[in-house]
């Protein structure tokens, strides 16, 4: 399948625990390209006391990467800038003031939680984003005990207006059997909106959209795969 989207990855070099340099970033983009991906939203981490890259460095790196893509003959590969925003009490302000980015200039925000965050905290943070007109996408929902152990809670967040993303490796079964079954359950119950590679590097946590699409097609059919990997993400980028 061609024209796929990857809405969650750490390919932007030198700003978090993802690609270490331009060479590694280009290797990863090339891997995405071979997998049929033509739209990549780069989502460097922003998490207090862990990853706080200066916005000038982020945007400069993005523009440099965009130039490099053309140089390696992948002019039809579109890249966009976003952020994997770790939840905090000031995240709405952070977004409103442009200190951190939404997804590809849209109202969508890729929001990450800590694995053991309480349901009440998650719900309150999601509602605060919604209240200010942002559209939260919960990053790798399979990872948090609150959503992993309670599909109904996840469903309630979705009904409130949040979207759900899970990682490609989870669907492919490379993150364990339990996680794989959870992903399948979400797909069967119509609770999944997006898949991201969450690719980090060339030698570990490689972007693996290709094998995931095959798996989704086999389990859920081609139309469903198109919805998850093309139609839904197109709503974020608008193209
Ligand atoms: Fe990530």
Task: Set out the fold topology.
Blueprint (H helix, E strand, L loop, with lengths): L3 E3 L15 H13 L2 E6 L2 E2 L8 H17 L6 E4 L2 E3 L4 H6 L11 E5 L6 H13 L3 E4 L6 H4 L2 H10 L2 E5 H5 L4 H12 L5 E3 L12 H12 L1 H16 L2
Parallel strand pairs: 1-2, 2-4, 3-5, 5-6, 6-7, 7-8, 8-9
Helix pairs in contact: 9-10
The chain binds fe (ii) ion.
Summed up:
With 239 residues, the protein is of the alpha/beta class.
Task: Describe, in plain words, how this protein is organized in 3D.
This protein is an alpha/beta fold. Helix content is 45%, strand content 15%. It has 10 helices and 9 strands. It has helices spanning 22-34, 55-71, 91-96, 119-131, 145-148, 151-160, 168-172, 177-188, 209-220, 222-237; strands at residues 4-6, 37-42, 45-46, 78-81, 84-86, 108-112, 135-138, 163-167, 194-196. Strands 3-5-6-7-8-9 form a 6-stranded parallel beta sheet. It has a 3-stranded parallel beta sheet with strand order 1-2-4. Helix 3 links the parallel strand 5 and strand 6. Helix 9 crosses helix 10 (222-237). 43% of the residues are buried. The mean pLDDT is 96. Fe (ii) ion (FE2) binds at residues 8, 10, 84, 198.
């Amino acid at each position: 399948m061609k024209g796929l989207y990857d809405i969650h990855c750490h390919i932007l070099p030198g700003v978090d625990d993802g690609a270490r340099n331009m060479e590694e970033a280009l290797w990863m983009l090339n891997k995405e390209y071979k997998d049929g991906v033509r739209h990549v939203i780069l989502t460097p981490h922003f998490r207090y006391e862990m990853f706080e890259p200066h916005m000038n460095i982020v945007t400069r790196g993005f523009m440099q990467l965009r130039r490099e893509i053309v140089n390696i003959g992948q002019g039809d590969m579109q890249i966009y800038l976003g952020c994997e925003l770790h939840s905090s009490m000031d995240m709405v302000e952070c977004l409103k003031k442009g200190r951190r980015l939404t997804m590809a200039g849209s109202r969508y925000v890729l929001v990450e939680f800590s694995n053991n965050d309480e349901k009440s905290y998650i719900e309150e943070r999601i509602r605060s984003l919604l209240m200010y007109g942002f559209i939260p996408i919960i990053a790798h929902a399979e990872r948090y005990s609150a959503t992993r152990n309670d599909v109904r809670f996840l469903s309630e967040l979705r009904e409130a207006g949040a979207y759900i993303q899970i990682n490609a490796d989870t669907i492919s079964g490379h993150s364990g059997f339990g996680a794989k079954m959870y992903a399948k359950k979400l797909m069967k119950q119509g609770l999944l909106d997006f898949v991201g590679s969450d690719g980090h590097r060339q030698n570990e946590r490689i972007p693996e959209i290709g094998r995931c699409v095959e798996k989704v097609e086999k389990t859920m059919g081609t139309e469903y795969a198109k919805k998850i990997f093309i139609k839904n993400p197109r709503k974020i980028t608008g193209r």
